[in-house]
Each structure stands twice: as structure tokens, then as C-alpha cells.
């Protein structure tokens, strides 16, 4: 699955909906046993959640958006398919969550391709289920530092901390992801799927048990003047970077 939402593969409501529909189709087609998620935008896996879906929007829109974000996470995280991330670009915040929700992550060895939950740098916070997935992946201590400081790990650090499973030369990302897929597909589906569910369900259940409350929290938080100001400042910084 090649993500194509130029210029930066931001996860807009429309793009999330397209991803959800595509994933559902693949899940329902029994000829598919695995997917490799990668990007068609040069140098960018995904810029994460679309800031324009959270800035200057009314509460109803924010609620609809957050529901779609939850939905995509649950679908990827709990997918019965083998999901491999072929991460061929930078993946901050929501892009990192998407990567972390894969069963295995292969990152291209380019110092620009940083990965991490950098929410605090935007003046916002990673929701508890983003945090849970990071803690599950890199452990409590590493996650508490990474989250508070908004670390974006370059490939060598990403491998060391375990946020990705493998770092390979850029031209080998897709072929490595395909070899990894072959290894994973050698395992009988029912055994692998039940095991995946056993490991991941408790984390997903934490959100499933309080989805509506999570949406309300998000809407309350994102609607605060101080948070809207932080988003405004961050968006202006992105604009000014262009010069
Ligand atoms: C109680 C609490 C309850 C709940 C929690 C509450 C809320 C918080 C939860 C929120 C969780 C948030 C998760 C996220 O994912 S936030 C997004 C994080 N993303 C980033 O920080 C990345 C920002 N982008 C960049 O750093 C660069 O754009 C990037 C990806 C390195 C690419 O750089 P470059 O190629 O130079 O391209 P430009 O910067 O020029 O960007 C081109 C164009 O795209 C716009 N853009 C970039 N990123 C985003 C984005 N994430 N959303 C929307 N738009 C984006 C950028 O502004 C440019 O636009 P322009 O119009 O100027 O062309």
C-alpha cells in the first residue's frame, strides 16, 4: 500500500477515510495475507495528523476527525494481516504511530528520516494510546524521555532504542520488507493472528473501553485557546521555513 497524499502524506480526514476503505477491502479479500505500507512522497513517510484538521475547526469537525484517527489506528494495530512498514521517509507523531502499529518496521538509512512522537514540540500531547504503543515498543524509561522531549530519532538511534526493527540502505527498503513478509507468512495464519490478538488486545481495549470519552477529551483539549495558539505558531514556523 503506497500512501499518496502530496506533498507530505498528512493524515487528513479524506486521506484517513481512503486508507480505511483500502484496508477494509484488503482485509475482506481472503487472497491477501499481508500488506507492506510505504510512501509515494519522496523523503516523507507521513507528516502525521493533518494540523489543518485540528486548527480553527469547530468541535463537531474535530470529533469526526478524531473518530477517524482512532478508527485507523485500531484497524492497523489489530489487523489480521501481517503489516510491515517500509519506512522511506520522515515519520513524526501520527506517522510514527502508524509505523508503530505495524508488526515490523524497516527504516531507510537516511539521517533525514527521523521517527518519533514529537507532539510536545508542537505544544500538544500524545494521547494515552499513542503513549501505550510507544511504551510497549521501547520500554517505559526510554518512552518517558522520548515523549517529554519530543525526540525524533534518526535511523541509528531509532534502531538502538528499538523504535524500528531494521535499518537498511534506502534502495533496499522494499526488498527487505518483502523478505521479512515472506518470513512472517511462513507462520500459519490462525496461530499468528491469535497470538497477535493476545499481545495487542489489552492495549486496544484501553481505547475501546473509552472511545467516546477520548473523543470528548480531544475536542476539549484541542479547542483551548492556548492549544490553538501553539498550533498557529507551529504552522507559521512551517511556512517561514520555506523563506
Ligand atoms: C487531554 C488530551 C486528550 C487528547 C490529546 C489531545 C490532542 C493532541 C493529539 C494530537 C496528536 C498529534 C499528532 C500529529 O501527528 S501532529 C503533526 C505532527 N507533524 C509534524 O510535526 C510534522 C510537520 N511537518 C514537517 O516537519 C515538515 O513539513 C516535513 C514533514 C519534514 C516535510 O518538510 P518539507 O518537505 O520541507 O515540506 P514543508 O514543511 O514545506 O511542508 C509542505 C506543506 O505541507 C504542510 N504540512 C506539513 N506537515 C503538515 C501536517 N502535519 N499537517 C498539515 N500540513 C502540513 C506545510 O505547512 C506546507 O504547507 P504549505 O501550504 O506552506 O505548502
Automatic annotation (TrEMBL):
Pathway noted in the entry: Lipid metabolism; fatty acid beta-oxidation
Positions of transmembrane segments: none
UniProt superkingdom: Eukaryota
Pfam families associated with the record: ECH_1
SUPFAM superfamilies: ClpP/crotonase (SSF52096)
One GO cellular component term: mitochondrial matrix
Coiled-coil intervals, chain numbering: none
Gene Ontology annotations of biological process type: fatty acid beta-oxidation
Reaction(s) catalysed by this chain's protein: (3Z)-dodecenoyl-CoA = (2E)-dodecenoyl-CoA; a (3E)-enoyl-CoA = a 4-saturated (2E)-enoyl-CoA; (3Z)-decenoyl-CoA = (2E)-decenoyl-CoA; (3Z)-octenoyl-CoA = (2E)-octenoyl-CoA
InterPro entries xref list: ClpP/crotonase-like_dom_sf (IPR029045), Enoyl-CoA_hyd/isom_CS (IPR018376), Enoyl-CoA_hydra/iso (IPR001753)
MF terms (GO), sorted A to Z: delta(3)-delta(2)-enoyl-CoA isomerase activity
Alphabetized PROSITE patterns for the sequence: ENOYL_COA_HYDRATASE
Gene this chain is encoded by: ECI1
Complex and partners: Homotrimer.
Name of the protein in question: Enoyl-CoA delta isomerase 1, mitochondrial
The family this protein is said to belong to: Belongs to the enoyl-CoA hydratase/isomerase family.
Record localization: Mitochondrion matrix
Assigned keywords, A-Z: Acetylation, Fatty acid metabolism, Isomerase, Lipid metabolism, Mitochondrion, Transit peptide
